[in-house]
Design brief:
Elements lengths: L3 E5 L6 H13 L3 E6 L3 E4 L6 E4 L1 E2 L10 E4 L4 H6 L5 H11 L4 E4 L4 H4 L8 E2 L6 H6 L3 E2 L4 E4 L2 E4 L5 H11 L2
Parallel strand pairs: 1-2, 1-6, 2-5, 6-7, 7-11, 8-9
Antiparallel strand pairs: 3-4, 10-11
InterPro entries: C56_PfpI-like (IPR006286), Class_I_gatase-like (IPR029062), DJ-1/PfpI (IPR002818)
Protein name: Type 1 glutamine amidotransferase
Family: Belongs to the peptidase C56 family.
């Protein structure tokens, strides 16, 4: 059964951390909606990848989605910079309601804003790990970690494992 997947995205996302998981999810028949600060387009770090933002964060409700994908790069940090905390609250809905969340590389930064990481086992890009620990998570250095409803990975090198476990969690 097709799931509705929200993808939160801003400029300077890691191109392949968006394109590869989205392709894997679409290949399984899932519907993807890209959500940003406003509609329009955002560019990846390479600036070769341009993605259309389908919906602005102010125009959607997390209840309308079954799962959340948070690609890495600088995008998660920029989304955390939203003064109203909309992306943190949006993400919190998924963690709180045990809906699947897929976060790779710097993506787990957005999970910190949920204040719900205590006892969760996660991984991420090296520079994010201490922040996750400070937020109460148990951090490990593995290619993919599945903890309850959350799938995390470290870098683009882990995409095969990340995509596999993300797709499996939706079955």
């Amino acid at each position: 059964m097709a799931k509705k997947i929200a993808v939160v995205l801003d400029n300077y996302f890691e191109d392949v951390e968006y394109t590869s998981p989205v392709e894997a999810l679409k290949n399984e028949g899932h519907d993807i909606t890209v959500i940003g600060k406003e509609t329009g387009t955002v560019k990846g770090k390479s600036e070769d990848t341009e993605v259309t933002v389908d919906r602005a964060i102010n125009d959607i409700k997390p209840e309308d989605f079954d799962a959340l994908l948070i690609p890495g790069g600088f995008s998660p940090d920029m989304l955390r910079g939203d003064e109203e905390g909309r992306f943190g609250e949006f993400t919190k809905h998924f963690v709180q309601n045990e809906k699947p969340v897929f976060a790779i590389c710097h993506g787990p930064q957005l999970l910190i804003d949920t204040d719900l990481l205590k006892g969760k086992k996660l991984t991420s890009f090296l520079s994010v790990r201490k922040d996750l620990e400070n937020a109460g998570a148990t951090v490990v250095d593995e290619s993919v970690v599945v903890s309850d409803n959350i799938v995390t990975s470290r870098t683009p090198d882990d995409l095969e494992d990340f995509n596999r476990e993300s797709v499996n969690l939706l079955k």
